[in-house]
Amino acid sequence: MATKSLVKSAQITVVGAAHNCKANKRHRLKKGDIRLTVKEGQSTSHYCVCCGLKILDRSIKKLTSLQTDIKDS
Ligand SMILES: [Zn+2]
C-alpha cells in the first residue's frame, strides 16, 4: 500500500541498561523491562509502561477523533 503510516515512530522495546523514564525521572526502568520507544526526528525517547500507556491512549483518541472528523466531512 503506497500510503504513509502515522505510527511508525512508536515501538515496544526491551531495556538494556537501566535508565529513567523520559516523562518522569522518578520512574526507573530496569534491565529486561519493556518500554515504549518513540522516535522524533533524530532523537529517540523511552517511556515506562505507565507513561507509555498514557501516550498510546492519547494517540488513539487523536486518531479516533481524526477518523470521526474525516467520515463526517
Ligand atoms: Zn514513566
- The number of E-state strands comes to 5
Shape: elongated
How far is the first residue's CA from the last residue's CA? 24 Å
Radius of gyration: 15 Å
Q: What helical percentage do the residues reach? A: 25-40%
SS class: alpha+beta
* SS field, number of helical segments: 1
Mean pLDDT: 95
Which runs of at least 5 residues are low in confidence (pLDDT < 50)?
Answer: none
Describe the structure.
The strands form two sheets. The protein has a three-stranded antiparallel β-sheet. A two-stranded antiparallel sheet has the order 2-3. It is of the alpha+beta class and 73 residues long. The relative contact order is 0.18. The longest helix is centred in the C-terminal third of the chain and has 24 residues, at 49-72. A hairpin with a 7-residue loop joins strand 2 (19-20) and strand 3. It has one helix at residues 49-72; strands at 10-14, 19-20, 28-29, 34-40, 43-47. Zinc ion (ZN) binds next to helix 1.
Key phrases:
single chain, 73 residues, alpha+beta, 3-stranded antiparallel beta sheet, 1 helix, 5 strands, 33% helix, binds zinc ion
In short:
It contains one helix and five strands, in the order βββββα. With 73 residues, it is α+β, with helices and mostly antiparallel strands.
